[in-house]
Each structure stands twice: as C-alpha cells, then as structure tokens.
Amino acid sequence: MNIQIIAEAGVNHCGSADMARRMVDVARNAGVDYIKFQTFKTECIVNRSARQADYQRRNLAGQSDDSQFYMLRALELSYDSFSELNDYCRRSGTRFLSTPFDLPSIDFLATLDMDYWKLPSGEITNLPYLRKIAAYRRPVIMSTGMSTPEEIEDAMRVLTDGGLDCGMITLLHCNTEYPTPMADVNLRAMETLRQRFGTRVGYSDHTRGIEVAIAAAALGAEVIEKHFTLDKTLPGPDHVASLDPDELTAMVAAIRNIEAALGDGCKRVTDSERANRTAARKSIVAARDIAPGEIFSESNLTVKRPGNGISPMRLPEIIGQASPRQFFADELIEL
Length: 335
Description:
2 domains, 10 strands
C-alpha cells in the first residue's frame, strides 16, 4: 500500500514567501509526497469583527489582538507567490498542494494543475464552495474535523451530485483542535468512515509528536497529513502543534517502515526466514541407543533441533515401525 504523506506547511511561513521556499526544501529532504499550503484572500473568508478561535488565542499568547482578520492578513501570500512556489516545488521534485479557502482562490489554484483538491474541515458545510470544487471534476481529499456523520454525508452528496464518484474522494478523519488531546483522537473512527462512505480514508493529525500519525498508518490510513514548521517558537497559531524538521523526517521514515511492514496480507514463508527453519524447527531423533529391528516407540524417540530430519508431525507414522539399523542417542532418525 502506498501511503501518501502530506507535509502541511499551512500558514507556518509567517507570510514570507522566502520562508515558504525553505519549507519546501525541508519537506523534500524529509521525503514527503506533497507539501501543502493554504491559499486565501482574507477579505473573502472572514469579516473584521470575527474573533480568533480559542486555540489561536492560546497559541498566539498575546502576539496579536483578538482579530481573526488581521491575524490572517499577516499570514496571507499573494497568488503570484503561490505560482512561484508551485514552480519551485516542480524544480525541487516535491509535489505542490494548497487548500483554497474562498471561491476566487479555487479558480486560481485550478490553474496550477494540482493532483488533488485538499478541502479543510471548516468548509465541509460551505455549499457554494463544495459545488465549485465538484465542478472541476478533480480528485478530492476532504478533512472531516468538527463534523457529524450526517454533515459528511451531506458534503459527499454535494460532491457526487456535482460529478465526482466515491473513488475520487478521500476522507480524512481529523480533530480540529491544535494540539489535539490524545483522548479526543479516536483513530478507530477512520475505519468507520471507510465502512460508511466507501471511500479511501486517511488521517489529518493535530496531536503533538509523531506516534498517532504512525498508528494511523498501521491502522490502514492511505493519506497522512501533518503540520510542520521551521521553528516551533515562531509567532503564529499553528507552530506549537507542528513538527520541527527533524520530527518530520522521523515521522516519514517511520511511516515508510510501517508501509513496508503492512505487506499484502498473504501468509507465506519469506525469503528472509526460510533459512531459519532448519535451525529453529525440530526433527525426530533417538532418545537413546536403538538396536536394529527394535520397534520405534515413545520411549526410544524424542524430538530435537535441527529440523533437517523427519518432521515430528510424522511421529504417529514412525511409531510401531522396526528400526532399519542401529541409531545412537541424539542421532536423527532416517528411514
């Protein structure tokens, strides 16, 4: 199974295109499949009276006033910057994604020919947004934080009515708190999404550390998304719940190991273990000296390593036969 890893840069570039390019370099070196940003026009997504979310106020810790508008305005990159980032990703060998948060940004990002639309949890009830996404008839990865199953079903209906089939949609289980408390992760809900909606599933992780993302991979996530930053102490709402470059690299390595370890589900003797069968298994051997013609019995036979003789599974067949020759104690029985 090929697990797609999305390194979520988000707005952790602090509004700097130069920092965003540095994040592309980090993501490439970590070995992710995609680096993802967030594209928006602040005036299109929030009014000036909107207050910051609790986690934003907590994570910013007095770095700004309580306005969502001015917080986001400081983190906004221009469309030209995203075009340049897309080109930079292509030259660097890293695939570019960005989440649109408004209708004009959908139209702009459509010109960049991304592999997927990545939809954020907050837009799952945004009917005009979902209709516009569906109209482009491109594969969708949709986060489901803060959503009930009924809300997910409604969003799926909008997308499928707009021309997408379930095979074009991946649902990411998600909890939209930064960082997410471990007790609220509920990873098993990922499988519930798979069974209920018949889509590919994955996990968008907002916990601290890398262990939950690794567990999601082991549970069958086909997409893993995780925020990262150049420095957790930078000002901004998401840095504290993000991985630093070393943690991102460690997470990718661990997920790739899990990916390899999951295998194809067929039980077989592997090449790596085949040679150990002789050393680890047992054979039928003489428990004591056995004279020619003596009848094999439970008293004069036993089983010991190595396993290059007669299998102990054949004991009922051997017991009762006459010994064809003399065997010494511990000697492999041969017929």
